[in-house]
Amino acid sequence: SVWAYEDHVRLIRGRICWEIKFSAVFIALLLSNIKLLNLMHMNRFSFQASPLAFDLLKPISDHIQEIQSFRERNRGSSLFNHLSAVSESIPALGWVAVSQKPGPYVKEMNDAATFYTNRVLKDYKETDRRHVDWVRSYLLIWTEMQAFIKQHHTTGLVWSKSGPIAPASLFDSPPAPSAPCPPPPPPPPPGPPPVFTDDEAKPQADATAAQHSALFAQLNQGMDITKGLKHVSDDQKTHKNPNLRSQQPAAAKGKNAGPVASPTTPAQKRPPLLELEGKKWRVENFEQKHDLVIEETELKQVAYVFSCNNSTLQIKGKINSIIIDNCKKLGVVFENVVGIVEIINSKSIQLQVLGTVPTISINKTEGCQVYLSKDSVSCDIVSAKSSEMNIMIPEGEDDYREFPVPEQFKTVWDGSKLVTEPTEIAG
């Protein structure tokens, strides 16, 4: 088991070294402060349930709290979803204190991270592939840790039955000199990491500030500002020299007279994809496909439908949530959702509920028709920046009654607060 853990540590260390390039603050803090490599000594010692156990695990606990505090201090960061994914899943390192079946505990932490990494994918999927690679690499750390625990510590961390009791100083030894990072696992990380600061904007800001300073310096000259103007004689004035009116305006120096067409590059068409990645079903880039089906679903799984046009998807069973992003003329039929169905940046969407769903969210969408079942008529429908939304309420066995969602509102002051209500305009 010791040698197996050493192999696992080398594998995880390789992934962490690559993660440093993408998550500089969090993973570097984790690697430098949490002496995770000392865990390989655990099954050489015996364990005694006493306050000593708290001393052994306190360094890990302290640094987990430090990472979570860092996230709270940076709520305004553009990478807050990245920070949240790490903060919500980092307690998985406490699996050493779980006496029975620590593997499912790590899996729960991985699922908690997936909630935020889905948001990262939604925000950066088409703009910066580095964030997509970061998500895959980070979640793989916990997946590999689950596999190691399942193989060697299924019922909890294995301690020696005859060795000496593990001392609290086990974590106090100075860290060994760090060896060079092993090569990163595939796929290789493309490009430099995203950073937390806005240093790239400083040169532009400095240039703008210099222009402003020069402008104010000229304004401060007062009446002397006209001394730098050149006198224009009558023969140079158009209204006093008729010959100037028949001349064509001079072409600007250094520029071509002809129109310059901006180069356009055709959008790269990505291959269609329907696969289960961890706990997430990915349905992407389908065109004219009306037989898409997700057969086997679990309660903790989510479905992310991206850039599918003129297609139909059926989701069977019970699933955690569904996200429909950047789709056109898409129909989705599902049975049961325990979380939320979210439609964003889409056009002409048809949604049919066969079972139950607590919440449907419609954002930045033009044209959305929702068919509710008798069991889902009490669901919450939240909309923002959307138009042409209609809710179909069942009547009888096979009939529906259509109700439009208000798009125009009236807001009045009632003396103590603003009151907003939908308006009805007679045609």
Automatic annotation (TrEMBL):
Q: Which family does it belong to?
A: Belongs to the CAP family.
Per the record, the domain of life is: Eukaryota
Molecular function in Gene Ontology? actin binding; adenylate cyclase binding
UniProt cross-references to PANTHER family, sorted A to Z = ADENYLYL CYCLASE-ASSOCIATED PROTEIN
The chain positions of domain C-CAP/cofactor C-like read 266-405
According to the record, the segments passing through the membrane are: 20-37
Region described as Disordered: spans on this chain = 168-210, 232-274
Annotated Pro residues bias: 174-195
Return the protein name. Cyclase associated actin cytoskeleton regulatory protein 2
Which UniProt keywords are given for this protein, alphabetically ordered?
Answer: Membrane, Transmembrane, Transmembrane helix
Q: List the InterPro entries.
A: Adenylate_cyclase-assoc_CAP (IPR001837), Adenylate_cyclase-assoc_CAP_C (IPR013912), C-CAP_CF_C-like (IPR017901), CAP/MinC_C (IPR016098), CAP_C_sf (IPR036223), CAP_CS_C (IPR028417), CAP_N (IPR053950), CAP_N_sf (IPR036222)
**GO cellular component annotations, sorted alphabetically?**
cytoplasm
